[in-house]
Amino acid sequence: MPSTPRESIHGQWSSRLAFVLAATGAAVGLGNIWKFPYIMGQNGGGAFVLVYLACILLVATPILITEIMLGRRARRSPVHGMQALAREEGAPAAWSLLGWMGVIAGFLILSYYSVIMGWAIAYVERALAGSFTGLEGPAIKAMFQSFTANPLELLFWHTIAMLFTMLVVVRGVRAGLEAFTTLLMPLLFIILLILVGYGLSTGHFAEALAFMFTPNFSKLSASAVVVAMGHAFFTLSIGMGTIMAYGSYMPERTSIARTALIIVAADTLVALLAGMAIYPIVFANGLEPSAGPGLVFQTLPIAFGQMSFGVVFGALFFVALVLAAWTSSISMIEPAVAYLVESRGWSRARAGTLLGFAAWALGILTVLSFNHWAEVRLFGKNFFELLDFLTSNIMLPLGGLLLAVFATWVMRRASSFEELGLPAAAYVLWRVLTRYVAPLGILVVLLHGLGLLG
Ligand code: TRP
C-alpha cells in the first residue's frame, strides 16, 4: 500500500464528473481553437493533422493516463509528489526536479497565454459593438493588425485576463476551479457547430476538408513533426504537472483510463471542429492558411459580420473562447500554487497573487513581440515564438518522456497496476505504449527535429 495520504491537503473534487470537467476545461482552450488551426496552416494541413493524431493516440494519451495516475498516487503538488513517489519506489530524490521543470513551464506558458486570452476578451467587446458587421476579409485583417500594433491596448487586456485568472485561482479547488467549469463547454461546442454550419454555406467546405484531411507528406518537414508532438502535449495540458496536480485531487476508485479517454475525445473533437469552422472561411476569402497567430481573429469575425444574428453569435463565441481559455489558464499555475501552499504554508490567495503578478510581468515581453519587438529575433524567432517553442515543443515533451520513464521503468509494476486498476490486457497496452512507444517516439522526434539525427 502507498504510504501517502488518501486525500490531498488542498481538498478534492466532489465527484468523478467534476474531475472530468475540470481536466477537460484545462485541456480545451486556446490550444484547440486558436493554436491548432494556425499551426496546421503553417505546417501544410493534412499530413500535419495525421501526425498530430498519431501523437495524440500513441504518445499523449498514455502519458495523460500516466500523469493522472502519478498525481493521484502522490496526493501532493508535482514537486513534492515526485519526491514522495521517488522515496516510495526507492529512487533518487532528484526526480523532484521533474516537478520543478513543470512549475517553470506552466509559469512561462501562462505569461503568454494570458496575452492571447486578452485578445479574446477584447474581441468580445468588438463583437458586442457590432464592429464586424458587413466587413470583408481585408477590413477584418486590418482591424486585427491595428489592434496588435498597439502595445498599451494589448497590455490592458492582458492585465484583465491575468486578473480573471488570479481571481479563480485564489478561491481554491472546489469554489474556484470546479464551480467554474460546468456550463461553458457545452455552449462553446454548440457555437462551433453553428460556425461549421456557416462554413458549409460558403461553398468552400470541401476544400477545407481536403486541406485538413488529405495528407501530402512532401509538405511535412522535420520541424512540423516536432510542432505536432509538442502540440499534442500542449492541448492535453500534459508534461508539466497540471494534470498531476488535478489528479491529486481525484477521488479514490474512479477509472483513470476511462476518464482520460473522455478528455482526449472532447479535446480532439473541439480542435477538429475549430479547423472545420475556420478553413472554409479562409478559402472563401482568399486568406492565407499560414497567417499565424492571428488566423482565428482574422477569419471568424468575417462570418459573424455576414451571418444573421452575427452580433449575438459573435459575442457568444468570444465569451465562450474566453471561458475556455480561463479554465485552462487557471490550471497552469496550480502546480506552483499547490507547491507554495505546501512548502511555505502560504494561503492560496497569497501564492496565486504573487505568481500571477510575476507571470503578468513576464507577459509584457510577449505583448511587445507583436509590435515594437516583432523583429527582435533569436534563432529566427521573436520572444513569443521562442517562448512557445521552448515550452510546447521542448519542455512538455521532455517532461512527458521523463514521466513515462518514471512510471514504467522506475516505479514498481505492482504500484502502477494497483493505482490504475485496469483489466490485465488494458494494463499491458498502457504499459507497452508508455514504456516503449511513447519515450522512443518523443526521443526520435526531438532529436530529429532539433537536428541531432540529421
Ligand atoms: N491545454 C490548454 C489549451 O489547449 C493549455 C494548457 C492548460 C496547458 N494547462 C496547461 C498547456 C498545462 C500546457 C501545460 O489551451
Describe this protein with a few key phrases.
454 residues; mainly alpha; Hydantoin permease; 0% strand; globular; binds tryptophan
What's this model, at a glance?
It is built from 20 helices and no strands.
Rounded Rg = 21 Å
Q: Per the principal axes of the C-alpha atoms, what is the gross shape?
A: globular
Order of helices and strands: HHHHHHHHHHHHHHHHHHHH
The assigned CATH architecture is Orthogonal Bundle
Distance between the termini: 47 Å
**Low-pLDDT regions:** none
Task: Report the helical percentage.
Answer: over 70%
Number of helices: 20
Oligomerization: single chain
Strand content: under 5%
As for the CATH topology, it is Hydantoin permease
Task: Describe the main β-sheet briefly.
Answer: none
Q: How many β-strand stretches?
A: 0
- Structural class by sheet pairing and helices: mainly alpha
Descriptive overview:
The chain is mostly helical and about 450 residues long. It has a single domain, classed as Hydantoin permease. It has helices at about 15-25, 30-40, 45-75, 80-90, 95-130, 135-150, 150-170, 175-180, 185-200, 205-215, 220-235, 240-250, 255-285, 295-305, 310-330, 335-345, 350-370, 385-410, 415-420, 425-450. Helix 2 (about 30-40) packs antiparallel against helix 11 (about 220-235), helix 10 (about 205-215) crosses helix 13 and helix 11 (about 220-235) packs across helix 20 (about 425-450). The radius of gyration is 21 Å and the shape is globular. The structure holds tryptophan.
